[in-house]
Amino acid sequence: MLRFVPVLLFLMGHLVEAADPVIAVVDFKKALAAHPKAKELEAELRATQENAKKVFEAKQKELSELQTELQKAVAPLKTKEGNTEKNLQAVRDLQDRGREIQQSMLDVQARTRQTIADRQDAVLPELASQIRGLIATANNGQYAVVLDTSALSRDGLPQVIEAPGAFDLTDRVIALLPTK
Question: Who's near 26: CB < 8 A, 6+ residues apart?
Protein backbone atom coordinates (compact mmCIF):
# COMPACT_ATOMS: atom_id res chain seq x y z
CA MET A 1 0.00 0.00 0.00
CA LEU A 2 2.81 2.43 0.88
CA ARG A 3 4.45 1.82 -2.46
CA PHE A 4 1.49 3.55 -4.21
CA VAL A 5 1.85 6.80 -2.21
CA PRO A 6 4.55 8.31 -4.48
CA VAL A 7 2.50 7.46 -7.55
CA LEU A 8 -0.63 9.03 -6.03
CA LEU A 9 1.30 12.17 -5.06
CA PHE A 10 2.72 12.39 -8.58
CA LEU A 11 -0.73 12.08 -10.16
CA MET A 12 -2.31 14.56 -7.73
CA GLY A 13 0.47 17.04 -8.49
CA HIS A 14 -0.28 16.87 -12.20
CA LEU A 15 -4.01 17.27 -11.57
CA VAL A 16 -3.46 20.37 -9.47
CA GLU A 17 -1.10 21.80 -12.09
CA ALA A 18 -3.60 21.32 -14.89
CA ALA A 19 -6.57 22.73 -12.95
CA ASP A 20 -7.64 26.34 -13.14
CA PRO A 21 -6.55 28.49 -10.21
CA VAL A 22 -8.75 28.18 -7.14
CA ILE A 23 -7.63 31.51 -5.70
CA ALA A 24 -8.54 34.95 -6.98
CA VAL A 25 -7.36 38.32 -5.79
CA VAL A 26 -9.01 41.72 -5.87
CA ASP A 27 -7.70 45.18 -5.04
CA PHE A 28 -10.62 46.28 -2.86
CA LYS A 29 -9.35 49.85 -2.42
CA LYS A 30 -8.93 50.29 -6.17
CA ALA A 31 -12.44 48.95 -6.81
CA LEU A 32 -13.87 51.19 -4.08
CA ALA A 33 -12.05 54.25 -5.43
CA ALA A 34 -13.46 53.55 -8.90
CA HIS A 35 -17.05 53.67 -7.62
CA PRO A 36 -18.83 56.82 -8.89
CA LYS A 37 -20.24 57.59 -5.43
CA ALA A 38 -16.74 57.29 -3.93
CA LYS A 39 -15.52 59.84 -6.46
CA GLU A 40 -18.41 62.15 -5.54
CA LEU A 41 -17.59 61.71 -1.85
CA GLU A 42 -13.93 62.46 -2.49
CA ALA A 43 -14.84 65.69 -4.31
CA GLU A 44 -17.23 66.67 -1.52
CA LEU A 45 -14.61 66.03 1.16
CA ARG A 46 -11.97 67.91 -0.81
CA ALA A 47 -14.34 70.91 -1.01
CA THR A 48 -14.95 70.67 2.75
CA GLN A 49 -11.20 70.69 3.36
CA GLU A 50 -10.66 73.62 1.01
CA ASN A 51 -13.38 75.67 2.73
CA ALA A 52 -11.89 74.89 6.13
CA LYS A 53 -8.44 75.81 4.84
CA LYS A 54 -9.72 79.22 3.69
CA VAL A 55 -11.31 79.90 7.08
CA PHE A 56 -8.17 78.70 8.85
CA GLU A 57 -5.92 80.91 6.71
CA ALA A 58 -8.15 83.93 7.39
CA LYS A 59 -7.86 83.23 11.13
CA GLN A 60 -4.08 82.89 10.77
CA LYS A 61 -3.92 86.27 9.06
CA GLU A 62 -6.09 87.80 11.77
CA LEU A 63 -3.83 86.28 14.43
CA SER A 64 -0.72 87.60 12.69
CA GLU A 65 -2.18 91.11 12.55
CA LEU A 66 -3.16 90.83 16.20
CA GLN A 67 0.41 89.78 17.06
CA THR A 68 1.73 92.95 15.41
CA GLU A 69 -0.83 95.03 17.30
CA LEU A 70 0.12 93.30 20.54
CA GLN A 71 3.82 94.07 20.03
CA LYS A 72 2.92 97.74 19.57
CA ALA A 73 0.77 97.68 22.71
CA VAL A 74 3.50 96.03 24.81
CA ALA A 75 6.20 98.56 23.85
CA PRO A 76 4.83 101.43 26.03
CA LEU A 77 4.68 99.12 29.06
CA LYS A 78 8.48 99.04 29.10
CA THR A 79 8.60 102.73 30.03
CA LYS A 80 7.59 104.18 33.37
CA GLU A 81 5.08 106.61 31.80
CA GLY A 82 3.53 103.96 29.55
CA ASN A 83 3.14 101.35 32.28
CA THR A 84 -0.44 102.32 33.08
CA GLU A 85 -3.44 100.23 33.99
CA LYS A 86 -5.13 101.32 30.75
CA ASN A 87 -2.20 100.09 28.60
CA LEU A 88 -1.94 96.90 30.64
CA GLN A 89 -5.65 96.23 30.13
CA ALA A 90 -5.29 96.83 26.38
CA VAL A 91 -2.54 94.18 26.26
CA ARG A 92 -4.69 91.74 28.25
CA ASP A 93 -7.60 92.33 25.89
CA LEU A 94 -5.40 91.67 22.86
CA GLN A 95 -4.04 88.49 24.48
CA ASP A 96 -7.58 87.32 25.21
CA ARG A 97 -8.55 88.00 21.61
CA GLY A 98 -5.52 86.01 20.44
CA ARG A 99 -6.56 83.04 22.58
CA GLU A 100 -10.09 83.26 21.15
CA ILE A 101 -8.73 83.21 17.60
CA GLN A 102 -6.47 80.24 18.38
CA GLN A 103 -9.40 78.37 19.90
CA SER A 104 -11.56 79.12 16.87
CA MET A 105 -8.78 77.74 14.65
CA LEU A 106 -8.75 74.53 16.69
CA ASP A 107 -12.54 74.40 16.45
CA VAL A 108 -12.42 74.71 12.65
CA GLN A 109 -9.95 71.83 12.47
CA ALA A 110 -12.01 69.64 14.83
CA ARG A 111 -15.30 70.37 13.04
CA THR A 112 -13.72 69.63 9.66
CA ARG A 113 -12.30 66.31 10.86
CA GLN A 114 -15.67 65.38 12.39
CA THR A 115 -17.59 66.37 9.24
CA ILE A 116 -15.28 64.28 7.09
CA ALA A 117 -15.50 61.29 9.44
CA ASP A 118 -19.30 61.54 9.59
CA ARG A 119 -19.62 61.66 5.80
CA GLN A 120 -17.26 58.72 5.36
CA ASP A 121 -19.15 56.73 8.02
CA ALA A 122 -22.42 57.50 6.25
CA VAL A 123 -21.31 56.55 2.72
CA LEU A 124 -18.41 54.08 2.80
CA PRO A 125 -20.15 51.10 4.47
CA GLU A 126 -22.83 51.10 1.76
CA LEU A 127 -20.22 51.34 -1.00
CA ALA A 128 -18.12 48.58 0.58
CA SER A 129 -21.20 46.39 0.74
CA GLN A 130 -21.87 47.04 -2.95
CA ILE A 131 -18.27 46.19 -3.83
CA ARG A 132 -18.48 42.93 -1.85
CA GLY A 133 -21.64 42.06 -3.79
CA LEU A 134 -19.93 42.86 -7.07
CA ILE A 135 -16.97 40.69 -6.07
CA ALA A 136 -19.37 37.80 -5.50
CA THR A 137 -20.98 38.49 -8.89
CA ALA A 138 -17.60 38.69 -10.64
CA ASN A 139 -16.46 35.50 -8.91
CA ASN A 140 -19.63 33.65 -9.88
CA GLY A 141 -18.52 30.64 -7.87
CA GLN A 142 -15.39 30.14 -9.99
CA TYR A 143 -12.86 30.57 -7.19
CA ALA A 144 -12.80 28.99 -3.75
CA VAL A 145 -11.00 31.94 -2.15
CA VAL A 146 -10.88 35.64 -3.06
CA LEU A 147 -8.14 37.60 -1.27
CA ASP A 148 -7.88 41.38 -0.93
CA THR A 149 -4.49 42.58 -2.14
CA SER A 150 -4.99 46.06 -0.65
CA ALA A 151 -5.50 44.84 2.93
CA LEU A 152 -2.66 45.41 5.37
CA SER A 153 -1.67 43.28 8.32
CA ARG A 154 -1.02 44.70 11.78
CA ASP A 155 2.61 45.14 10.78
CA GLY A 156 1.62 47.34 7.84
CA LEU A 157 2.61 44.70 5.32
CA PRO A 158 0.24 43.54 2.62
CA GLN A 159 -1.69 40.45 3.66
CA VAL A 160 -1.28 39.03 0.18
CA ILE A 161 2.33 39.44 -0.82
CA GLU A 162 2.30 37.10 -3.76
CA ALA A 163 -0.36 34.87 -5.28
CA PRO A 164 1.14 33.23 -8.36
CA GLY A 165 -1.52 31.64 -10.49
CA ALA A 166 -4.31 33.56 -8.76
CA PHE A 167 -6.79 35.33 -11.00
CA ASP A 168 -7.19 39.11 -10.48
CA LEU A 169 -10.90 40.00 -10.31
CA THR A 170 -10.34 43.75 -9.82
CA ASP A 171 -11.02 44.77 -13.43
CA ARG A 172 -14.13 42.59 -13.56
CA VAL A 173 -15.46 44.23 -10.40
CA ILE A 174 -14.74 47.73 -11.72
CA ALA A 175 -16.52 46.85 -14.97
CA LEU A 176 -19.62 45.91 -12.95
CA LEU A 177 -19.76 49.27 -11.12
CA PRO A 178 -22.72 51.52 -11.86
CA THR A 179 -21.90 54.49 -14.07
CA LYS A 180 -23.65 56.95 -11.75
Answer: 135, 138, 146, 147, 148, 149, 168, 169, 170, 173
Q: Is residue 9 part of a domain?
A: no
Per residue in 44-99, pLDDT (tens digit) is 999 999 999 999 999 999 999 999 999 988 888 888 777 888 888 999 999 999 99
Flag whether 34 is in a domain: yes
Q: Count how many domains the chain has.
A: 1
Contact predicate 55/115, CB 8 Å:
no
Q: Letter for the amino acid at 134?
A: L
pLDDT tens sequence across 132-172? 999 999 998 898 888 888 888 777 776 777 777 888 899 99
Inside any domain, residue 74 = yes
Q: What is the dihedral of CA 75, 78, 80, 81, to 10 degrees?
A: 0
Burial class, 148, CB count within 10 angstroms (exposed 0-12 / middle 13-18 / buried 19+): middle
**10 within domain boundaries:** no
